[in-house]
Amino acid sequence: MNRPARTPARLTFRAAGLTTLAMLAFAGNSLLCRVALRDTAIDPASFTTVRLISGALALALIVRLRGGKGSGRANWGSAFALFVYAAAFSWAYVSLPAATGALLLFGAVQATMIGRGLFGGERLNMLQTSGLIAAIAGLLLLLVPGIGAPPLVGAALMLGAGVAWGVYSLRGRGAADPIGITAGNFLYAVPPAVVVSAL
After folding, report:
1. CB atoms within 10 A of CB 152
2. 122-133 burial: b if 16+ Cβ within 10 Å, else e
3. Residues 62-69: contacts with CB within 8 Å, 24+ apart?
4. How many contiguous H segments (helices) and E segments (strands) does the chain have?
5. Which of 36, 41, 50, 170 is the one with CA 20 to 30 A from 94?
6. Is 151 inside any structural domain?
């Protein structure tokens, strides 16, 4: 029996749902990280190492359950971007509130990916351009020195984490086996994290 073709409306709804789920996961990640660094004795370096090792183990298990052979297609460039994201993210949350950190992270990720698209010849329509301008204005307003301005070092680290995650996402675009490649990248990101933890 043939499956019904997916209409553009169904595809748009599915994309919106997956995007919403990803953003909720990002927000939950920020909340859990902030709580761990604020309410426990773990330091940012150790927290980064634990995150990457646990991620590598979980993804390796998923790959194995799917019958995959592992991480042969991972690469050090993507792994380094992943490590920079994880490390900068952890150190940023030593001083940033969860909500502020999430806003800076989301903004930097989107700015990086949209900027790369524009550089590559993609064009935004009027609505997309208005949204981009509003987002950039909001980030700039958040960073303006004042009573509610976040700590400069923490903000810079979180923006760096966002850029690194944007680069990582762009490098993985169009991957034939995203789960297998991500598993390998997490594995490759563990050694630099261990080195930093040992310093």
Report:
1. 11
2. eeeeeeeeeebe
3. 62/179, 62/183, 63/179, 63/180, 63/183, 66/179, 68/177, 68/179, 68/180, 69/180
4. 7, 0
5. 170
6. yes
Residue 113 placed within a domain: yes
In angstroms, the CA 134 to CA 157 distance is 22
pTM: 0.82
Instruction: Provide the domain limits for residue 192.
Output: 28-198
Within-domain flag for 4: no
Size of the chain, expressed as the number of residues it contains: 199
For residue 170, how far is the Cα from the chain centroid?
Answer: 11
Q: Are 60 and 183 in contact (CB under 8 A)?
A: yes
pLDDT, tens digit only, all 199 positions of the chain: 455 555 666 667 888 888 888 878 878 888 888 888 888 889 999 999 999 999 999 999 999 888 766 555 778 999 999 999 999 999 999 989 888 888 888 888 888 988 888 888 888 888 888 878 887 887 777 777 665 678 889 999 999 999 999 999 999 887 788 888 999 999 999 999 999 999 8
> In angstroms, what is the C-alpha Rg of the chain?
18
Q: 173 φ, ψ to 5°?
A: -65, 130
